[in-house]
Amino acid sequence: MGYGVLLLEAGKLKVLEVDAVRFPAEDDHTLKLRAIFHQVLAIIEKHRPDELAIEAQFFGKNVQSMLKLGRAQGVAIAAALYRDIPVVEYAPKRVKQSITGNGNATKEQVAAMLSAILRTEELPKSTDATDALAVAVCHALAKGSNSAGTKRSTSRGTSDWGSFVRNNPERVKN
How far is Cα 98 from Cα 112, in angstroms, rounded to an integer? Predict the structure, then answer.
């Protein structure tokens, strides 16, 4: 399970924490759910976020995996609601579209754009962590915070790569 915590400060996004929680494969699924609940509560207590953005469940071929993922997402959502934190879900394609301008972007493309948006080259190696960070950045962009220096597109309600380049020529490497 990946997570990313952002702070909006003076119109800029600052990464406070990004990581992934790992569980031994042999652990009982219900114990993993309890651990997820406690981990999300610990993150909430540490950072006091205003909102929780989460990737919406997607349809896959393995029904058992989808059920387990759905339970894990539900537990994370329950932890946020337990602390009266509003929850917003984003479809995976919407996250990729808002970060890269391409709803079918690869994880590597998303990570590269996150580096540019957040002005950092030090992203976690874990794709779970960078995926979670992408959801957080997508949420910031969707809220129209202009936090990453991009303007919201009036036609789609999200930022895209083209508007990012137009609005931030100094941040794009040749």
Answer: 13
Query: Does the pLDDT at position 155 exceed 50?
Result: no
Three-class HEC string of the chain: CEEEEEEEECCEEEEEEEEECCCCCCCCHHHHHHHHHHHHHHHHHHHCCCCEEEECCCCCCCHHHHHHHHHHHHHHHHHHHHCCCCEEEECHHHHHHHHHCCCCCCHHHHHHHHHHHHCCCCCCCCHHHHHHHHHHHHHHHHCCCCCCCCCCCCCCCCCCHHHHHHHCHHHCCC
Q: Which CATH architecture has domain 2-171?
A: 2-Layer Sandwich (3.30)
pTM across the whole model = 0.79
